Amino acid sequence: AMKRGFDACLKDHAVAVEKELASGTLECDADWPTIQGLNFGLLHLNMAIGPAAARTGVPIKGLTGYGYRFVNFWDMDFHMFPYYLMTRPWDARNLLVYRYGQLDKYRENARRWGAKGAQVPWETNTRGEEETAPWLCLQEREIHISADAAWMFKMFAEIAGDDSVLDSMGAEFAMETARFYASRIRWVRSRRRHELPDIGCPDQYHTFADNNVFISLMARWNLEYAVSLAGNTRFAKVAEKISLQPEEIDEWRNKAQTLFIPAPDKEGIIEEFDGFFKLEPDLEGITESYCRHSQAVKQPDVLAATVRFEELYSEKIRRANWRFYNDRTLHGSSLSFPGMAFAAARCGLNDEALYNLQKSARMDLDDVNLDTERGVHVSGAAVAWQAIVFGFGGLTPKADRLELRPNLPRQWEFLKF
Ligand code: IFM
Questions:
Q1: Which among 191, 211, 316, 341 is placed 20 to 30 Å from 305, CA to CA?
Q2: Crossing angle for the helix pair 89-101 and 145-155, nearest 10 degrees?
Q3: What's the pLDDT at 1?
């Protein structure tokens, strides 16, 4: 009976995929090769999700290749989820089920590193275990992924309009990840502030750092969100289930209020982490394996922070940071070009956005990195979709409304999504 059920599921899924094949996802008048490349990526994104995602998540190459061994990175929670949420919310929910179903393993993972609460592994397998190679030193440092995962529950609750996911999964998840961050944050007496030390920047060329702006913002958000959930009597049963103490809520509030977040300097530039400005600015001769001492970044996580926390930074500051980090980004990750396109489009740097979009869109059709045989870069495609729809399309989903402020590149007359 189970097999018959499963076959039926697959059949439904196949029919849905066939429909997708027949219908283009994005259209515009002037940039056919870019749109073709993107639709190719979106097709693979659509094929990669279905009922089984509740057990497997969506690995970064979708179902297309063995590159990265079918594990789940932040690519799923942070980069792909917004695409699924906006286009196939019934499937997006499966990603919440996947993360929540592994919560006990994440609790074990936190204890393994001497922390409390729940720590999502940087590379998670279907059993909820950590798969990151230990010599990368990222298992205990690339810690934004716990908040990236918690954010999915909030987005789903607000935007899919079904906040029952908070009762059944999200409140518990976000409180446990808040516990994790609270146990990772340290009080630094000499500077009289809380800090988040010993982290690996999402940029990924700087693995041993303190106070990365992206991670600290995500951690602070998680603490604040958990405070708001814990203060709501609706979630009293959840609090009881995880034996939440009133002092813990005070601790979360206090740490969120006093956590150090690197601020823009006189020129408006945000330092990626402590000491980044003092690193070697001359990138002559820098390569991926020889760059830690320099300001070279693999992918600009400061820009990802200014996009997600757009309300904290003026357009002028976002533009200044875009230009600063553009000069320092080596694009070692396939997330980099589309991420830069997205950030540029959200602050009106349209020519720059289009250039970066074009660089990323045909990554696989033209085998730009000579690695498509290892799988399609589906997470890059999801970010490129955001660059178009949230960037040029100017779509901003809010809890109570959709905002739309189109800002097309001058080369395009229309965009359909
Ligand atoms: O998750 C990414 C990471 O940010 C950069 N290296 C590749 C991973 C998978 O895309």
A1: 191
A2: 140
A3: 47
